[in-house]
Amino acid sequence: MPAPSPITSKSAPELIRDVQVLNGLGGRGLTWITLALRLPQVLAPLGVITWVATQTASPWAAALSSAAVCLGSALCGVLMTFFVNVPWRQWGMVVLALLQGMVMWLLPLAPIESVPTGIDSLGMFLPFFFAGLSLAPQGLVCRIRWNSLLEHRQRADLLPTAMRAESVSEAMSVVTGAAITGLIATTAGPQTVLRVSAVLSVVMITIFMLHPSARLKQPVLTVSLRDSSERLQQARRWSAQRLRSMLVVGCGGLGALLGAIQGCLVVFAVSVDIVPSMGALYAFLGLTSAIAAVVTVSWRTRVRPWNLWILYSTAALLASMMLSTPSGAFGFAVVLALIGLCIGPSLLCLYGLAAYAAPEDMYIGLVSRMTAATSAGMALGLVLSAYFGVRYDYISAALVPVSVALIPLAGSLVFIYIWRRSPLSSPHT
Q1: How confident is residue 402, by pLDDT bands cut at 50, 70 and 90?
Q2: 341: Cβ–Cβ under 8 A, 6 or more apart, which residues?
Q3: Which of 267, 270, 380, 405 could pair covalently with 389 via S-S, beta carbons 3.0-4.6 A apart?
Q4: Homologous superfamily (CATH) for 12-217+233-421
Q5: Using alpha carbons only, what angle is made at residue 90 by residues 175 and 46, rounded to the nearest 5 degrees?
Q6: CA diameter of the chain
Q7: d(Cα 250, Cα 373) in Å, to the nearest integer?
């Protein structure tokens, strides 16, 4: 086994002190700003699936439209890595945020009722795919901001703590966004979710750009996808590459599980005529995920993240098996709450493990691929579960989450198998 990392070898009081120093350096709540900056990218696809399901009562149309948004967002995230060092990258993010705000504000005005919603119709895919292209994942920009801030303050020793905080924000934005979507859709209507996403996108990018850290010199980063270090032996490089692949596979599988759950939810809601309650049901998953993720943060100083990944992946598989049992809204809400206890911590562990598998020059590239894999997996899970639900029945749709839940579990087992046989250097985060 490799030596302890700079993070996991620290005691809880030391970690708390580092976080307090980091917050002081950030000033004016930069940690909270980077968390809120990610929320529109979560609200948009969830708002789309709820809105389309309400307007059309078609599980296939709802799943296909949301999947198209997720795929567009995934492609946007991959393209962003190619422009990470351009001088105008911050202004490019402003343009994307304004475009996103405009698209999501106008989307509820589209005549969605007139679009063919049969299972053989793909007419809804392209418009929502182009809408998704404006949903730029903000994790890359947030990590660059912390890098420039700590470099300016000459506190590079706190970079591991900052990257760890960003991993927490990455996971918390997904689960918190689910809860917010459910609450807004229930109280103000599903179309309001899209408009809140639009407003929040513009407001948060404005705050992000007005923050004092935006005026600092932007660092030149190396975003590499391959390990070209000559000092590593070929076998060691191959092991590290497989570890990184397992993290991408794990994120893709977890995204597919989230998408399959959404697909099951829309099929179930349409079949028992509780479409207006979809948002409230999904909020249970988001709330329990957020609570479990917060608890897991305190455990990470005592339990290795790869062990937590195996634990929560196994629990997610067992919980997903219960999706075939509920007969009403209350039972479905209980099952979603149980699954939520596994989703948030799993995301947290995956993003935390990125540091163990990637050298510093590859870390941002790996995280970008993991984020893109999550969005692409969500699209796949949505389409598969909705297809089986519409073509066959709800029980067939409920088998999809069970199947895709095997992917992150298999990824965690392969990861630990490789890790224990291939000692690597301590992570930089």
Answers
A1: very high
A2: 288, 289, 291, 292, 315, 319
A3: 267
A4: MFS general substrate transporter like domains (1.20.1250.20)
A5: 25
A6: 62
A7: 9
